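4.2 Preliminary Data

To establish feasibility before requesting continued support, the project team ran the inverse folding procedure on a target of 325 residues. The structure was first converted into the token representation described in Section 3, and no sequence information of any kind was made available to the design step. The complete token record follows.
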């Protein structure tokens, strides 16, 4: 027996390794092994708190599904099976004994199982969604006793979007219009998206304005509005992937159609002028009365000095009075 010592070039081994990596998925698929990337899809599903979602398997009609096993992987904690679909029904018999005690105490896991229902052979419905329903749902579809396919559903449950409100601040006013800052007040959450619309019905925020710009990640809308513009209503929209809410504000409420901000100051200016004028009039009247009293007193004193002193009967006669008699 002759042993040959053949040295294979290093570059040749690299080409062989690369060929194996490239053609292995095709070879495996040809022999019936399902590829994780091509045959095991992952779906993203969004649901609203208290609502329902449908997890549907896109199985080809020609494939006969023997059974479907469902499992749940929560965002935190351990994974566990949900049930097995067979003969047109979701069989939970194997799980009832496991969760019987938990169901009596109202355990969240058992309550999730109670909210499951099969709509058809390949669609699972989850109703009365809670935040704990969020996670990864795995469906293992058995085509025969040895071959199965896995599907993964990433479920995210969102809360309903609360109604926002708009806070306004007038920066300046002119007879032609005003400059205003509108602030959309809404809870700060990562999944919330804030946008602005104009007009009624709301449409895109372009055109019809002298100038507008956004700040604070779109929460603040700065508007230079002119009364000649056809749109005076601005709407703040807050949304997440499953819900949205909005609030509107009409600039005519704060930007008067007539004279603008200067009218505000001219309207206030006559008040202090009138007050000063009234005070001056009162002071003049008071001084006039005081001068009149002083003149009357002086006249009375002059009259008393010019008249002879009256003779009183009780006074004793002075020297020479008898001679005159």
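Position-by-position output of the design step:
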């Amino acid at each position: 027996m002759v042993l040959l010592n053949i040295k294979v070039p290093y570059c040749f081994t690299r080409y062989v390794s690369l060929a194996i990596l490239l053609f292995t998925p095709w070879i495996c698929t040809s022999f019936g092994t399902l590829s994780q990337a091509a045959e095991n899809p992952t779906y993203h599903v969004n649901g609203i708190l208290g609502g329902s979602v449908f997890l549907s398997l896109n199985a080809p009609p020609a494939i006969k599904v023997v059974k479907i096993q469902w499992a749940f992987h929560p965002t935190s904690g351990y994974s566990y099976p949900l049930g097995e679909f067979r003969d047109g029904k979701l069989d939970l018999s194997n799980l009832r004994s496991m969760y019987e005690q938990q169901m009596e105490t109202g355990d969240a896991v058992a309550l999730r199982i109670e909210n499951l229902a099969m709509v058809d052979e390949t669609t699972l419905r989850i109703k009365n969604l809670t935040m704990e329903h969020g996670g990864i749902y795995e469906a293992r579809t058995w085509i025969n006793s040895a071959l199965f396919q896995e599907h993964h559903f990433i479920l995210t449950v969102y809360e309903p979007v609360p109604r926002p409100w708009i806070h306004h601040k007038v920066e300046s006013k002119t007879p032609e219009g005003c400059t205003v800052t509108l602030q959309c007040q809404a809870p700060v959450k990562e999944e919330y998206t804030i946008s602005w619309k104009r007009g009624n019905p709301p449409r895109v925020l372009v055109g019809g304005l002298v100038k507008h710009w956004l700040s604070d990640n779109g929460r603040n809308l700065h508007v230079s509005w002119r009364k000649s513009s056809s749109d005076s209503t601005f709407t703040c929209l807050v949304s997440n992937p499953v819900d949205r809410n909005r609030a509107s504000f009409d600039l005519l409420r704060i930007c008067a159609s007539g004279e603008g901000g200067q009218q505000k100051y001219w309207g206030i200016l006559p008040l202090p002028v009138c007050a000063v004028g009234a005070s001056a009039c009162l002071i003049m009247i008071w001084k006039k009365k005081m001068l009149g009293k002083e003149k009357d007193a002086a006249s009375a004193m002059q009259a008393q000095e010019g008249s002879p002193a009256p003779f009183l009967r009780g006074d004793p006669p002075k020297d020479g009075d008898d001679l005159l008699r």
